[in-house]
Specification:
The protein is of the alpha/beta class and 172 residues long. The chain is built from six helices and eight strands, in the order E-H-E-E-E-H-H-E-H-E-E-H-E-H. Helix 1 packs across helix 6. It is globular and about 50 Å long.
Length: 172
Amino acid sequence: MIGYASAHGSTAQIGQRIAKVLERDGLTVEVLPLQQAPSPEGYEAVVLGSAIHDQDWLPTAAEYTTRHAEALRDRPVWLFSVGMTSALPRWIRRSAHASQDRRLAHALRDVVCPRGHLLLSGVATPGQFPRWVGTLFRVLGAHFGDYRDWARIEAWAQEIAGELQSTRPLRP
């Protein structure tokens, strides 16, 4: 199962792309928004992703991981987080990314024990923010745009597929 919490659609599209890679490698995948996702108990493995707002996963994603923590610890789980560090000015981008990655990985590791966590940048458009934020964004040297690194996303999904295929029992 791939479950996601998406504020503006970018995280959902990343989840869909991950699913295509896994399916291309012969895995059966169900992609669902987390507010509609069932318990992970019926799945062999789980990939969960969320947009990042105010330095945290969206409430829907945080609630899902907390509510299903025990079931998630009993199976392979990978997590991805979608923020906007790539939109930030160059002088702060690297440290902001590292700080956000440490913070999220630590918070999520305590709940779900993931096999991996990937911090990505998504899409940042002026319409997603109050007008004053857009002005501040530009003054600081940040740039709106689509920062999804599809090659990195697909490579990560390929790693997941490889791990899952190496642990699957052979069928006669």
